[in-house]
Amino acid sequence: MANAIEIIGNARKESRAILTEMESKQLLASLGIPTTQVELATSREEAVAFSKTIGYPCVLKVSSHDISHKSDAGGVKVGLKNDEEVAAAYDAIKASCLTKFPQAVIEGVTVQTMAKPGLEVIVGMATDPQFGPVLMFGLGGVWVEVLKDVSFKIAPLTKSDAAMAVREIRASKLLDGFRGSEPVDTAALEDILLRISDFVTTTPEVKEMDLNPIFAYPNGAIAVDARVILGE
Ligand code: ADP
Ligand code: MG
Description:
The protein has about 230 residues and is α+β, with helices and mostly antiparallel strands. The protein has two domains: about 110 residues, 2-Layer Sandwich (Dna Ligase, domain 1), CATH 3.30.1490.20; about 110 residues, 2-Layer Sandwich (D-amino Acid Aminotransferase, Chain A, domain 1). Helices cover about 35% and strands about 25% of the residues. It contains seven helices and ten strands. The strands form two sheets. Strands 5, 6, 7, 8, 9 and 10 form a six-stranded antiparallel sheet that branches. Strand 5 and strand 6 form a beta hairpin. The longest helix has 18 residues. It starts with a helix and ends with a strand. The chain binds adenosine-5'-diphosphate and magnesium ion. Magnesium ion binds next to loops.
């Protein structure tokens, strides 16, 4: 498995500052952060073949350096249950993305394991000119935009910083279980924050990271979308 330095080096060779979702997830996996399995298909037949090995239901997503908001472009299809649905989704993703972004170069379509539903949260990292790397934790999905309910901590984070980042959001009650749902594994979320903190502290060329969303479960958590941006 490629390590973070190799993945970053590959992007640099191609003069790219933004890692693809697949590269970003490979990087997360190398840091010990759980993500979905991802394979890049460059034909409909290949997408079907990958789906068979990954297993149903699966998810298909556009992979293009020119498209960063994949669902806005019609580039995400979840819950695909069989070969026919995968083949149709492959064609639909390409058609929709090329209609919305006629100039886009599409490298292919990724085939991914479909993560079971969980509480959507996000972990982010941005570089502040004064404070350096700053980590963010918040609720994911629509809530991040509507409520702006996020907390920030300056890296490197201590264990108690990570615990506070998770606790400090206003809607932290949702993490404790809501209307009969089980509490989520906050230790797994703190672990992700600490691994990202360690990584960005030792890798200053990473300028931004976005794990959006992470699905949080009573046991564990998994990043289903990821983006890493390099600086100078
Ligand atoms: P975007 O580029 O639009 O942010 P995402 O990769 O985040 O695209 O996908 C959009 C949504 O689809 C996610 O917020 C999540 O709810 C769902 N999703 C994406 N990938 C998966 C997956 N592998 N398993 C389950 N749900 C997924
Ligand atoms: Mg996303």
